[in-house]
Design brief:
The chain is of the alpha/beta class and 732 residues long. Helices cover 36% and strands 21% of the residues. It starts with a helix and ends in a 26-residue tail after the last helix.
């Protein structure tokens, strides 16, 4: 109720004070694209970013554009937070995506492709090959490709085929002679998804040469359609609506329902058509009509379709000079050479910063719990595991060792549903008690609870984090982990697990902030408290790091806080619907985004609290889905040393970044932070250096001497934050 009272007391701002969620996301993808264009990045790292941009766009169309098209087709006209109708947003998205696609493939043609060739990584067409290589290609086609191809003629007997989501296809025009009459026909060949999209040619080890599978198949179309004349062929690709539509009120078995929807996803309504640049207009029109799309859904591509598959050239350990230096996060100092993790956690809370400190310690925690004879039970949430053998294996091993094991597995984790179903079944077969969370709410929280009978008493050990239990993504996502044995934390976690696995009502929590129950109200209260401090002339400060900011009520609260005098720094990787730098509204708000080698994923919230700072960490972004439709856990950092580390090392490090940081402008564009005369600061590089065993103690001592004053709220005037184009300073 408290947060609602705060909302009622706040000024409602017009739509011009907000940024479109879809357009903000596209700005984020443009920042990723800038990493592909940046000549300072190693070449193969640029190729990775190039592939990521394409993969991101795929998901954007599968979910966000699909949603826009559904709104357009409905009878209800709704406006987004920035005042646009779905049709207006769709047109703006079309313009932005067209510009992005043009830049993306210009980067490929003019920069990546020729530079790869200089380093003996080439992409060839069959007509460019020698006789020996053509013979090898022919053998490969006969043995590996031809048996899995299915030619699909199109005529009154054979209607236009149902093409799978994101599949690469070839449409060809044929000339067919029958009974002395010649006619033109169309046919389709689907490029098999079971085969690698890049076929590597036999060549010396120091050289990589490839033929695109689509080009290879195109070279043999006459073999697939014998007795016809091939007039032309063109590649195309269809993207479909990939949302799952499950009525949980009318489902007896959620697992079976999700499986059925996964099957339907591959055949959802088409939302985008990509074609080769040279595809004739009449062919494009034919495809659009049969896919029930319009010209606005058509994208002509001057380059390889589905460049996400190009990341295959980065596989292996070749060409180290074209990559970032290998980085392996060390074991965190409190756990280094520690044989008993439980003893270490009993002594004090332990904070890990991934991937700068190894995620292997989290796996070790689970494995030690699985084999420890004093451990009685393990309870864990699993959102995106990646099917890691050690994590899943630890849970299975714990069952074999006689422990009670519960896994709360989220079946509706987008694009990981099939993988989660597979591992849920294997866990069940091994004797793990698997449950699928709460009806109507995805379980997105990251926690593992271990119940152990210590010498003095029964004790609960808890791991809480901002990222998934996935060791693979933990190498490239930045996240925070906390190990604690604080009784209040353990009690809150126990109550939450009981709610997830049983039947009952939320009983509250003394320490953890839990969505959809208490998190939003607490955040509003914390923001309101800073607002009141500023109005009373007290120091007031907010720093929040997250992946996305969309919730309108929180944005309105931040505007009110800024107007009252609160200095606010937001570090938001992706979507931000808040518009900074509006006179009289958001002058004291600065928004930055950091896009670098690692994907920024941790969520950290700092509130000045009149000189006694409060710091929270957790799994939730400030978005309606996280606050109202998911089970999220945000936890306070109570150990003074760990709190200082997060404030002075992590948050201050990112606010000082002038290499990979971008600042959001009041016109919704982003501008790269200018270094000026200041020393170059790359927060991700600095975090790697800080994690090194040889620098950690020295750096901690240096920080203690410097006493960077983030714990003391700023009393600076609004003039210190007048321009969001300037790098924000830490308050002194």
């Amino acid at each position: 109720m408290g947060s609602r009272l705060h909302v009622l007391s706040m000024k409602a701002h017009p739509s011009s004070h907000f940024i479109s969620r879809e357009l903000s996301w596209l700005e984020f993808n443009n920042r990723v694209l800038s990493e592909a264009v940046d000549h300072k990045n190693p070449l193969l790292e640029r190729v990775k970013f190039f592939s990521i941009v394409s993969s991101n766009l795929d998901e954007f169309f599968e979910v966000r554009v699909a949603g826009l098209k559904q709104q357009i087709e409905s009878d209800i006209v709704e406006r987004s937070v920035d005042g646009r109708t779905a049709s207006e947003t769709f047109r703006a998205v079309r313009q932005k995506v067209s510009e992005m696609v043009a830049l993306l493939f210009r980067c490929w043609r003019e920069e990546l492709l020729p530079n790869l060739a200089k380093h003996d990584i080439r992409f060839l067409r069959p007509q460019e090959l020698s006789k020996e290589r053509l013979a090898w290609i022919h053998e490969y086609y006969q043995q590996q490709v031809r048996p899995v191809l299915t030619p699909l003629g199109i005529d009154p007997v054979h209607p236009f085929p149902q093409l799978l989501n994101k599949s690469l296809n070839i449409i060809l025009q044929l000339e067919v002679t029958h009974d002395g009459e010649t006619s033109k026909r169309l046919a389709v060949v689907q490029v098999p998804q079971v085969l690698p999209r890049l076929v590597r040619l036999p060549c010396p080890e120091e050289t990589q040469e490839y033929v695109f599978l689509g080009h290879l198949i195109g070279n043999y179309l006459a073999d697939i359609f014998p007795g016809t004349k091939i007039l032309g062929y063109w590649h195309f690709r269809v993207t479909r609506n990939s949302e799952l539509y499950i009525d949980e009120d009318d489902v007896r078995n959620l697992l079976s329902a999700v499986e059925q929807e996964l099957h339907n996803r591959r055949k959802g309504a088409a939302v985008r058509l990509e074609v080769d640049l040279s595809t004739p207009q009449e062919i494009c029109q034919y495809l659009l009509e049969n896919l029930d799309l319009s010209e606005a859904d058509l994208y002509r591509v001057d380059g390889p379709l589905n460049p996400a598959r190009l990341v295959a050239i980065c596989a292996g350990d070749h060409s180290p000079e074209l990559r970032d230096a290998t980085y392996v996060g060390p074991t965190a100092t409190p756990l280094r050479d520690v044989p008993d993790m439980f003893a270490a956690i009993r002594q004090k809370d332990i904070l890990l910063h991934h991937p700068y400190e190894t995620f292997g310690s989290v796996v070790d925690f689970l494995e030690q719990a699985a084999r420890d004879p004093h451990v009685l039970a393990i309870k864990q949430t699993l959102y995106r595991t990646g099917g890691d053998a050690r994590i899943v294996g630890a849970l299975m091993s714990a069952v074999r060792n006689g422990k009670q094991v519960t896994a709360v597995t989220e079946l509706k984790a987008r694009f990981d549903e099939a993988n989660n179903i597979l591992w849920a079944r294997r866990l069940e077969e091994a004797g793990v008690h698997v449950v699928y969370g709460m009806a109507h709410h995805k379980v997105h929280s990251k926690m593992a609870l271990v119940v152990r009978r210590d010498e003095d008493r029964l004790r609960r050990y808890l791991h809480l984090g901002t990222g998934n239990y996935n060791p693979s993504t933990a190498k490239i996502y930045t996240d925070i982990s906390l190990f604690t044995a604080r009784p209040e934390f353990g009690e809150d976690a126990t109550n939450l697990f009981n709610l997830l696995t049983g039947i009952g009502h939320f009983q509250g929590a003394s320490k953890l902030l839990i969505a959809p129950f208490t998190l939003h109200e607490k955040l509003m209260t914390l923001i309101h408290s800073e607002t009141e401090n500023a109005r009373a002339g007290k120091p007031a400060r907010i720093i929040a790091k997250m992946n996305g900011l969309v919730d309108r009520e929180i944005i309105e609260a931040l505007y009110s806080a800024s107007n009252a005098g609160v200095e606010i720094d937001l570090i938001i990787r992706g979507i931000c619907c808040l518009r900074p730098g509006i006179p009289g509204v958001s002058e004291r708000i600065r928004v930055r985004s950091i896009v670098g080698r690692f994907l920024e994923h941790s969520r950290i919230y700092y509130f000045g609290n009149n000189g006694i700072p409060l710091v929270y960490v957790g799994s939730a972004d400030w978005m309606p889905r996280n606050l109202y439709s998911r089970v999220e856990v945000v936890f306070p950092i109570e150990d003074p040393g760990l709190k200082t580390r997060l404030i002075e090392e992590v948050l201050q490090g990112q606010l000082s970044d002038n290499t990979k940081a971008w600042l959001l402008q009041s016109d919704a564009s982003y501008r790269k932070v200018s270094q000026g005369a200041e020393a170059k600061r790359n927060s991700q590089v600095e975090f790697m250096e800080l994690a090194s065993p040889s620098t950690r103690k020295r750096e901690v001592r240096q920080q203690a001497r410097q006493k960077i004053g983030l714990r003391r709220a700023s009393s600076s005037s609004s003039s210190s934050a007048a321009s969001s184009s300037k790098r924000p300073k830490a308050p002194k």
